[in-house]
Structure formats: C-alpha cells, structure tokens
C-alpha cells in the first residue's frame, strides 16, 4: 500500500453525505476525493464552495483526532479560492496535514497548476474586530417575516437555498431587511417544523456540523455584497470564527451586509462583506455564535446568469432594482 491506509468505520448520514468514501491516511496527512456531484451543487452545475469548506473541516478534525461535537471552542478557519475552477463531476482531491495550531490543507484539481482552495483551521483565534462589526448588525429582536423583510430569489438545486433538490440540503430562504443600515441580508434556522429534516439533519451527537454554517454564511455574505454592488461574485477569501458549538434544535439568525466595493467596471470589481450567526436565547436575546468576513470577485457572466436562473423571476427583478450603490 506504500504507506497509504484507508480508514474504515461505520459512517453516519452526515459522513456519507460529505465524503466520497473513507479518508486515506498518507503518512501524517489525511486525503479524500471531494464530492462534486448533486450533493454539492451550489450554482448551475458548479459545486458549492461552502460544501468544500465543510469537507476540509471534517477531514481536519479527523486528522486531529477530533469531531465537530468534541473540538474545543473557540476556533477559526480561513479559506482562499480563485485558482482552479471546478464544475460538477470534476475530480478534486482534499489533503489535510496537522499543524502546531490546528490543521492546514488544500483542494486540488489534477489538471490545474493552482489549487481550487487552500485552508487553515486554528484553535482559538477569535476575531474581536469581526465580533464588534457583527454586533452592530444585530437587530433588537428576530425580524418578522410578515412585516420586516423582502424575500430574495433562490436557485432550485443549491445545497443552501434549493427547494427542488432530490437529495437533502439546507433549504434556507434569504431576505433583505426593511430599513436596515447597509442593506442587511437575513436568513434563519430552527423556527420551522421542517428544519429538523433539512438544516438540523446535518448534526453529529446533537451538535450542528460546521458545513451548515460555512455554506450558509458564505452565501449570506455573497448576497450582502450583491446588495451593495449590484453584481454577482465568487468567494476569493473568507474567514470564520466559531465562538461556541451550536446545538441541534437551536434557533439561529444569520445576517450579513456589504462593506465596500473596489472598482467601477464589473470586469475589475471586488466587494467585501461581513456578518455572522446568532443564537436566539429563551429570553429573546441574541447571542453571537459565529462571525464571518469575506472578499468576493465580481463575475459578469454570473450576474447575467442570476437574472435568468434565480426564481421566482419577479423576486429576481426586484432584487436587482434594489441592489447597487446609491440605492
């Protein structure tokens, strides 16, 4: 076997969903083939970046002899994308090595020179600046879906927001908050009976797996940047700070807004966004549990695809009317 060992054990739903077979131990590292099939779809035949982030975290925790339900809080993760492109069905390999502070690794495509993603997971490492920024976004109470929000469109087969998938997904809806500073985007989980079959299904020993938070916040930040720039973008760099473990069944709200835009031409434009997730406590107070900030590169082709692919069409048209600088 040349030092390569396959790690066999009975797998849960979550492990079967995330991993394309058991990880391989290669010296001091772990490796697995990244799923790029329908499980991972994020956009029109393209795997969701947040899904890949979740696979990296799962492999990193295993490499450290931990799991999402045992790893001590707080911890942080940072991801960089923008090298190799990846489409549904492509081969990609995830490799993770344990480091002094946690774990690091990359997702590579055999035919590409640059990696699809590089990633670092660190013990501790909370971002005080990110926490302060997120607290400024928190409303005084959970937004009312009937009075305080404008629904945003979705892509039917998306791992995060798709409602037409034949396989499990998070099935989240996104909203724009009325009269919010900086066009705040909002999502929630744990409020509806069906959440036990979607969002809260992705848990281990009663603890929500990070893939749900990574993917959902990646998309929430993307929407926040869209509302500021009026353009669709792909993640270039994103950082998360997990302040504590999230229990299955907890009520959560997710918030994000665009922070700034660089460039005036869509062909050379970037935007930055920040946000996070807060747990709704029994007395109604909001407790920050995850913060996030990211940089996105505008893709003109993606913006045009959004106009024709997101549904319902009238919600898409309204979102584009509301998005952009000065609106």
Q: Count all strands and give the number.
A: 18
Reported by name, the CATH topology is: Porin
Order of helices and strands: EHEEEEHEEEEHEEEEEHEEEEHH
CATH architecture: Beta Barrel
Alpha carbon gap, first and last residue: 61 Å
Q: Largest sheet, order of strands side by side?
A: 1-2-3-7-8-9-6-15-18-17-16-12-11-10
Structural class: alpha+beta
Task: Give the full name of the CATH homologous superfamily.
Answer: Acyl-CoA thioesterase, double hotdog domain
Assign an overall shape. Answer: globular
CATH class call? Mainly Beta
The domain tally reads 1
Estimated radius of gyration? 19 Å
Largest sheet: 14 strands, antiparallel
Mean pLDDT: 93
Oligomeric form of this entry? single chain
SS field, number of helical segments = 6
Given as residue ranges, the uncertain stretches (5+ residues, pLDDT < 50) are: none
What do you see in this structure?
The structure is a single chain. The chain has one domain (4-322): Beta Barrel (Porin). Helix 2 (49-63) packs antiparallel against helix 4 (210-229) and helix 5 crosses helix 6 (313-322). It has 327 residues and is of the alpha+beta class. The chain has a 14-stranded antiparallel sheet, with helices on both faces. It has a two-stranded antiparallel sheet with strand order 4-5. A two-stranded antiparallel ribbon has the order 13-14. Helices cover 22% and strands 31% of the residues. The chain is globular. The model has no long low-confidence stretch (mean pLDDT 93). The longest helix has 20 residues, at 210-229. The chain has 6 helices and 18 strands. The protein starts with a strand and ends in a 5-residue tail after the last helix. A hairpin with a 2-residue loop joins strand 2 and strand 3.
């Amino acid at each position: 076997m040349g030092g390569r060992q396959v790690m066999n054990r009975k797998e849960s739903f979550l492990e079967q969903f995330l991993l394309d077979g058991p990880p391989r131990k290669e010296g001091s590292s772990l490796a697995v083939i990244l799923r790029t099939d329908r499980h991972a779809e994020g956009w029109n035949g393209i795997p969701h970046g947040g899904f890949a982030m979740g696979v990296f975290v799962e492999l990193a925790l295993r490499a450290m002899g931990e799991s999402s339900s045992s790893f001590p809080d707080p911890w942080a993760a940072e991801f960089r994308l923008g090298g190799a492109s990846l489409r549904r069905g492509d081969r990609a390999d995830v490799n993770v090595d344990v480091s002094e502070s946690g774990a690091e690794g990359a997702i590579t495509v055999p035919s590409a020179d640059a990696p699809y993603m590089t990633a670092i997971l660190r013990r501790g490492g909370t971002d005080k600046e990110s926490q302060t920024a997120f607290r400024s976004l928190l409303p005084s109470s959970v937004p009312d879906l009937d009075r305080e929000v404008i629904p945003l469109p979705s892509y039917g087969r998306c791992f995060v927001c798709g409602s037409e998938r034949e396989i499990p997904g998070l099935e989240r809806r996104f909203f724009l908050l009325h009269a919010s500073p900086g066009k705040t985007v909002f999502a929630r989980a744990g409020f509806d009976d069906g959440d036990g079959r979607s969002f809260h299904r992705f848990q281990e020993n009663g603890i929500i797996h990070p893939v749900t938070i990574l993917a959902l916040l990646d998309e929430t930040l993307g929407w926040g940047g869209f509302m500021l720039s009026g353009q669709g973008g792909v993640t270039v760099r994103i950082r998360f700070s997990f302040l504590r473990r999230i229990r299955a069944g907890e009520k959560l709200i997710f918030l994000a807004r665009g922070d700034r835009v660089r460039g005036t031409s869509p062909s050379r434009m970037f935007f930055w966004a920040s946000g996070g997730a807060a747990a709704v406590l029994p007395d109604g107070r909001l407790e920050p549990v995850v913060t996030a900030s990211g940089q996105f590169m505008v893709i003109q082709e993606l913006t045009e695809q959004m106009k024709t692919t997101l549904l319902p069409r009238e919600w898409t048209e309204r979102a584009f009317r509301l998005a952009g600088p000065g609106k």
